[in-house]
Amino acid sequence: MKKNVFLSLFAFAAFYTANAQAYLGYTPDNYAGVQGVLFNPASIADSRFKVDINLFSTSSTVANDLYGVKIFDVFKDGYDFDLEAKKNFSNANNGFMNVDAMGPSVMFNIAPKHSLAIYTRARAFINVLDVNGQVINDVTKDNKNTFPTATLGSPNAVGNSWGELGISYAAVLYQQGQHFLKGGITAKYLQGVANYHFQGTNVSVKYDDFGDPLLDRFTTNGNAIYGSSQDFASDSDVDIDSQSRGFGVDLGLVYEWRPEYTAERADINDLKEVNKYKLRFGVSVTDLGSMKYDKGVRNSYDLNGTFTQDDFDSYDNFDDFMKGEFTPIPINGTVRSYLPTALHADVDWNIYRRFYLNANGDLGVASRTKLNQNSIANRVSITPRYESKWFSAYIPVSYMEYSEQAQVGLGLRTGVFFIGSSSIISNAISKSSRAADIHLGFKIPIYQKKAKDQDGDGVLDNEDECPTVAGPVENNGCPWGDQDNDGVLDKDDKCPTVAGPAANNGCPWEDKDNDGVLDKDDKCPSVAGPKENAGCPWPDTDGDGVVDKDDRCPKVKGTLANKGCPEVTTEVIKKLNDFSKSVLFDSSKATIKPESHDKLEGIVNVMEEYNNANFKLEGHTDSTGNVAKNLQLSKDRAAAVKDYLISKGISADRLSSEGYGITKPIATNKTAEGRALNRRVEVILIK
């Protein structure tokens, strides 16, 4: 009797806990397709699918923090839940339930960086929070033992079911080198189906067993607010009202780090058929919104009262019971039910090739004490998986609030079908499971085609302007041209239409001064000059009109006729001979007397002044004495003057000497004066 009353009061066969995320372990898969928008709407941008069509899929979860069972024994005949379940009583036990089903849905790419999804979805969500577990245990016992007044607490219970029509849009927001960011948004139209909500304040219950069903009674105290989507007391059938509706929003971002992107592999972001990230970070907020029940009713109740099992059995439903046993006080205003808003974050690591490791966290951000507010249980999970185009296998390991147990599951995807559970392995071995779930679905996947690159140049054909001829990425897949055939590619050629050497960036060398010497070789490119002088004009240091290269006296002005050197004039020769006539020798000898040195120094000075002139020293004698001896004496004296001049620095190459004896007199030998003139050394200019 007592169990029936309790189950009717709360409209549950057992306590359940809402899963924090539907399709746990499956949605991080890069081939989750349209199911991915339920967790993060940004996931469908840059998808491995060209089109993904969901025919039907569902995800259901049951769990609790009060009863633990050996899950597969529950389905056996004769299983006694109260006797065989392990119980965990507290002053605030919690219960939830979540059923999620997707009908016909589709996602597709509307542009290379933009994707769209349209889905249909039916959901049922139940929360029962903060109920005294020991009271629940006492109420549900089949024996007739009396128990004293016990505080049930201030429970907050919400049961809500609705349909969704969602439209998701996702796009690539930023793409630069190794960094890739995409975002998404889902707008949801909500069609309310049915809603119950109950919020108690200081509720207590007492049972008195008098041994007679007509006398055994419950005594209750406290206050409560009870409401529903319609007045089920007047019509127990669920009436789906088109005016009972609302709107919701999901938001999401996904960042991917793509280290394989390099300057040489800049095309990697265009490969739609492959996963390109090493690390992926996702964050999303789901179920922002609410729905209004147009025919909803809500009453306040004073629960102070007493009733028997016969009293309860006389009512057709719980609504009739509440109104019959307690006085309802209508609460005016809109009956609005709030979605279980949640924050989700995940990190996906591509360990090696097709092996991945995903870490996921789900956090409920909705108030758990708000009237008619559904909420999720917080959950963390780690899921290793193997993933390929037509097959995936994943093993989620998770820990969820309330159940206080680690769960291990298993899932498989085979392209057109997927099935999994986040608790199947732990439930198979545990004797006190508090959670069980399953998800499965059927779909039609149309994958992205492998991008073609006929010429193998790393530029995909759809972007290659020369798809059959290899060329660099910088030139859109075409080889660089060479219009002037000078061996310098146009991309590097500063004169692409005029041939020129590579050393001058493909341009011909210039000759600005038109001297026949190219500027690259011309040391004086703006002044004409001969090739022999590297394009520079020959210098004329002394400014005598004879350039230095031809000037034998480049530092002394001269004449062109004398190759740039000063002319040796008659006056100069006379001066030299005046000096030479004053040179005295010892009698009958070639020894120069010391008093002649000043005159010789005068000859040295003149010869140094005209340092390019060559001279011949001629020795002469008078007719006195032996002719042969005089000839030799003239030679020796000329040689003596030559040797002196050489000793003073006059180059020997410029001097020569000869003796002529008595053969070239310049005066008579009959007089003393004439003979003195004939004894001489003359300086002769050699031209």
Summarize the structure in short.
With 687 residues, the protein is mainly beta.
Q: What structural keywords apply?
A:
23-stranded antiparallel β-sheet, 10 helices, mainly beta, disordered N terminus, Porin, 60s Ribosomal Protein L30, Chain: A, 3-stranded mixed β-sheet, 2 domains
Helix-strand layout with pairing:
Layout: H1 2-10, E1 49-64, E2 67-68, H2 81-84, E3 86-87, E4 93-102, E5 105-111, E6 114-131, H3 133-140, E7 147-153, E8 156-176, E9 179-208, E10 217-228, E11 245-257, E12 279-293, E13 297-302, E14 305-308, H4 309-313, H5 318-325, E15 328-330, E16 335-338, E17 342-352, E18 355-364, E19 379-387, E20 392-394, E21 397-400, E22 406-408, E23 410-413, E24 417-421, H6 424-429, E25 435-447, H7 570-581, H8 597-609, E26 614-620, H9 627-647, E27 655-659, H10 672-678, E28 680-686
Parallel strand pairs: 26-27
Antiparallel strand pairs: 1-4, 1-5, 1-25, 2-3, 4-6, 5-6, 6-8, 7-9, 8-9, 9-10, 9-11, 10-13, 10-14, 11-12, 12-16, 12-17, 13-15, 17-18, 18-19, 19-20, 19-21, 20-23, 21-22, 23-24, 24-25, 26-28
Helix pairs in contact: 7-8
